[in-house]
Amino acid sequence: MLFGRKKRKPISIPQKQVTEWKYSTCNYCSTGCSIELGLNDKGKVITSRGHAGADVNRGKLCIKGLLEHELFNSSGRGTQPLMRERFHEAFVPASWDKALDHTADKIKEIQNQYGRDSFAVVSTGQLLTEEFYTLGKLVRGCIGTNNYDGNTTLCMASAVSGYKRSFGSDGPPGCYDDFEHTDCLMAFGSNLPEQHPIIYWRLKEAREKRSFPLIVVDPRVTMLAQFADIHLPITPGTDCVLINAMMHVIFKEGLEDRTYLEAHTHGLAELEELINDYDPITAQHICGIDEDTIRHVARLYANAGAAMSIWTMGINQSTHGSDGVSNINNLNLVTGNIGKPGGTSLSITGQCNAMGTREWSSCSGLPGYRLLENPQHRQEVADYWGIDQAFFPEKRGLAETDIFPAIETGQIKGLWLVATNPMTSMPNTSRIRKTLEKLEFLVVQDSYQDVETNQYAHVYFPASVWAEKEGCHTNTERRVNLTRNALPPYAESKSDFWIFNQLAKRFENGHVISFPETAEEAFNEMRELSKGDGRILDISGMTYDKLEEAKGIQWPFREGQMGLKGHSRLYTDGQFQTPDGKANLICVDFVDNNERPDEHYPFWMNSGRVVEHFHTRTRTGKIGNCNKFSPTPYMEMNPDAAEALGIEHQSYIRLASRRGDAVVMVQLTQRVPRDMVFIPFHFHDCVNRLTLGLLDPYSRQPAFKQCAVRVEPVDQLEAARLNAERRAF
Ligand SMILES: Nc1nc2c(c(=O)[nH]1)N[C@H]1C(S)=C(S)[C@@H](COP(=O)(O)OP(=O)(O)OC[C@H]3O[C@@H](n4cnc5c(=O)[nH]c(N)nc54)[C@H](O)[C@@H]3O)O[C@H]1N2
Ligand SMILES: Nc1nc2c(c(=O)[nH]1)N[C@H]1C(S)=C(S)[C@@H](COP(=O)(O)OP(=O)(O)OC[C@H]3O[C@@H](n4cnc5c(=O)[nH]c(N)nc54)[C@H](O)[C@@H]3O)O[C@H]1N2
Ligand code: SF4
Ligand SMILES: [Mo]
Questions:
Q1: Could you give the angle at which helices 239-252 and 268-275 cross, rounded to 10 degrees?
Q2: Would you say the CB of residue 613 lies under 6 angstroms from ligand 2?
């Protein structure tokens, strides 16, 4: 007899009345899962499912992807353009024509008065690639400001910079299939099960078929660390020292791949000399990993038939971000692990289309990985767009993290924010608030009207979300995948593509450069621009239909190439994108420049993410089943540290840094060491009130994960009230 269920009816899930499935790619993380959106007979999207035939996710989706269709009608969506003279006045609804005319006029007025670069544009990694390409045309070709960047400076800039320094070009050389071939995997500052659940699933599948060591380098015992064979709880910001010490052991014991190094790299003698100083005995006192473990891991990595490294924000978001990436590349060059199955240096990308913006948005250069600094590249693009090449600057302008200080000093007077929310995502948000208040003109283009940054805007453009539009994403493994337009824009919102096109018409060059009417035509322009001898970023063989049929194709995929499979790996022939084809070994010396805990601020403050939320919660904060599991700003704290301070589990505390303070709930856990607290960064007026965000000298990326804080008591009732207000978001 079934206990307690005698009279119950069996559970049945009602069949959803889907009449059509539309093909799409997930618009949250960079894994690049293929999603099918189910529409009913009224054209309403009522469900989503993973596409079983897609190589990336093979039918699987994580919680965010499964609920992504709920976005279309979620609260807070922007319904119509809004305008006002001053930011503390009430917004007034406006027609699209009026809002666009006014914006174009203000941009021109500011540029005429203060110079072309006094108007800045900051975009994102979350638009479709055709939109990025069009925005690049508009900003580089029509508006003509050089202070144009994206939130990728908070995210992938160090990976880009590190790849360029090592290999002469951006572009992750590996793929998910490498998990199937590797004999040793080292993960630096990357928590796959929460942040890239489906990449993690691919890794887990591979390890279930064939055992190989997984080494996780992270100061926290993350979910990935819990599944690791070896966890290295590194002292924050010191990964470079660990890698140097590993290379020290490798060279001392003759485990390096000298044949590969001599044939394919520059700078071997200099590197050997530098790492001579990084013996594990000295290194252990800096990086916190004991000398025997360093030796053990170095031997394991170098002796593996094929070894690979992956990393994410634990490396990129550091004052040594670019160096950290180059040093991981060094380790893989030294052991001959680039471009071979299971042997690679694979940066795990963040946002769904952070790759697309790197490739095509012209933020830090020109389309197709072209450089502003290269006269031939400027000429090629100017010719293709039909403008004078003198219109382009000869080197890139300010990065996002330098744009805000330039507003502070009055160098920049106007700003256009496209799909990014710096009031919550930038370090030291009190400073950001003051800079936004100082602007003569701020335009916010976002799908959500209640995005915090909009409090300071003069014009608000309501944008459509993801499958209300059509176009491509590129994922972590260079796979270009398609989103079909599943439904019309919400209310009077418009696609970012349409908004860019309309604004272009209001600038002189907008009548010279052609701006295609459809995303597919823009894609065809990108294909043309990607053709060329030796260009690795070649998508000329792709079409929308082929992308849908293949469920995504990896670049390079050249015109005339047969079949539907692109290239899984780059640099398989040991030829890099440098003038003589050799990779650069980069000498990385450790500089101890972080704000460290001291007697006044005794804890490291680390920050990151949880699985249910995406970034500043403008989207997942509105989705019941995402928000429900993680509704409260909380802080992981070690129970021993809490006991010493008399702090209880689930009580509220006030955290203070030299920049500001924040109230959070305490979650006691051994995940963090005694001298560290960890806070998910998703909540407004929370972790980024405290962060310092020292910048990496090459990538200008902030060290979000390293600063010092102290813990103070707070009135519990007052804190609970504050929390309840936040939850009502
Ligand atoms: N659910 C969810 N998934 C996401 C996102 C999201 O918001 N929510 N965002 C996407 C984006 S844009 C990004 S960039 C990725 C980020 O993906 P991840 O980088 O995997 O996520 P984080 O939690 O930011 O940071 C990862 C780890 O870095 C560790 N870390 C801190 N300091 C150091 C250090 O000095 N050295 C090392 N080795 N590790 C350190 C932290 O303890 C943390 O566990 O996630 C993507 N996926
Ligand atoms: N302390 C701390 N801070 C961090 C990090 C950390 O680890 N710790 N991580 C950093 C990283 S890696 C990142 S990537 C950044 C992310 O920081 P942000 O980019 O500022 O955060 P998002 O919430 O993703 O902002 C994207 C905005 O785009 C809007 N949007 C979504 N789709 C569309 C669309 O199709 N069109 C338009 N126009 N708008 C759209 C969303 O509503 C949202 O407001 O945060 C950074 N900040
Ligand atoms: S793993 Fe990333 S791409 Fe896949 S469903 Fe989840 S959020 Fe979307
Ligand atoms: Mo990111």
A1: 110
A2: no
Listed residue (249, 229, 224, 426) closest to 311, CA to CA: 224
Greatest Cα pair distance in the chain: 84
Q: Give residue 105's pLDDT.
A: 98
Question: Whose CA is closest to 271, among 326, 347, 309?
Answer: 326
Residue 535 lies in a domain: no
State whether 247 and 373 are in the same domain.
no
Q: Is 190 in the pocket of ligand 1 (CB under 6 A)?
A: yes
Task: Kindly tell me if the per-residue pLDDT of 729 is higher than 50.
Answer: no
pLDDT at residue number 727:
59
Tell whether 319 and 175 lie within a shared domain. yes
Q: How far apart are the first and last CA of the chain?
A: 47
Q: Report the pLDDT value the prediction gives residue 533, as an integer from 0 to 100.
A: 77
Instruction: Supply the pLDDT for residue 626.
Output: 83
Q: What is the mean pLDDT of residues 317-325?
A: 97
Nearest to 127 by CA among 466, 486, 468: 466
Q: Is the same domain home to 715 and 650?
A: yes
The number of folded domains in the chain is 4
- 712 located within any domain: yes
Task: Give yes or no for residue 694 CB within 6 A of ligand 3.
Answer: no
- Ligand nearest to the backbone CA of 704: 2
What Å distances lie between residue 61 and 31, 337, 347, 482, CA to CA? Answer: 10, 31, 21, 17
Please answer whether residues 509 and 493 qualify as being in contact, where contact means their C-beta atoms are separated by less than 8 angstroms: no
Total residues found in the chain within this entry:
729
Over residues 651-677, the mean pLDDT reads: 97
Q: Which of 29, 30, 221, 349 to mutate to test ligand 1, by most ligand atoms within 8 A of the CB atom?
A: 29
* Domain housing 435: 82-87+96-142+354-530
Ligand 1 atom with the smallest distance to the CA of 615 is 7
Averaged confidence pLDDT in the chain: 96
Q: Is the peptide bond before 639 cis (omega within 30 degrees of 0)?
A: no
Q: What is the mean pLDDT of residues 705-717?
A: 96
Q: Which amino acid is at 331?
A: L
Whether residue 632 is predicted with pLDDT greater than 90 in this model: the reply is no
Q: What is the rounded distance in angstroms from the CA atom of residue 294 to the CA atom of residue 272?
A: 18
Q: Give the H or E element holding residue 521.
A: helix 519-530
- Strands 441-446, 230-232: parallel, antiparallel or unpaired by DSSP? unpaired
- Between CA 513 and CA 510 the distance in angstroms is 5
Q: Is the pLDDT of residue 627 over 90?
A: no
pTM of the model: 0.96
- CA–CA gap between residue 33 and residue 36 (Å, rounded): 10
Q: What is the CATH number of the domain that holds 60?
A: 3.30.200.210
User: Quick one: which ligand is closest to 607's CA?
Assistant: 2
Whether pLDDT at 622 is above 50: yes
Q: Is residue 537 part of a domain?
A: no
Ligand 1 atom at shortest distance from the alpha carbon of 611 = 1
Sorted by sequence, the CB contacts under 8 Å of residue 214 that are 6+ apart come out as: 185, 187, 203, 207, 227, 228, 229, 230
pLDDT at position 672, please? 98
User: Which residue's CA lies nearest to atom 5 of ligand 3?
Assistant: 65
Assess if residue 506 is contained within a domain: yes
Reported confidence tier of residue 5, pLDDT bands at 50, 70, 90: low
Where helices occur in 137-279 by DSSP H, the ranges are 157-167, 192-195, 197-209, 223-226, 239-252, 258-264, 268-275
For ligand 4, a single-atom ion, the residues with CB < 5 A are 155, 350
Parallel, antiparallel, or unpaired: how do β-strands 230-232 and 479-483 relate? unpaired
Q: What's the average model confidence in pLDDT over 562-569?
A: 95
pLDDT given at position 722: 82
* Structural contact between residues 421 and 681, judged by C-beta atoms closer than 8 angstroms: no
- The phi, psi pair for 418, rounded to 5°, reads -115, 110
The fraction of the chain above a pLDDT of 70, given in percent, is 98
192 and 354 Cβ atoms separated by less than 8 Å:
no
Residues 280, 414 within the same domain: no
4 — pLDDT class (breaks 50, 70, 90):
low
Residue 84 — very low, low, confident or very high, per pLDDT cuts 50/70/90?
A: very high
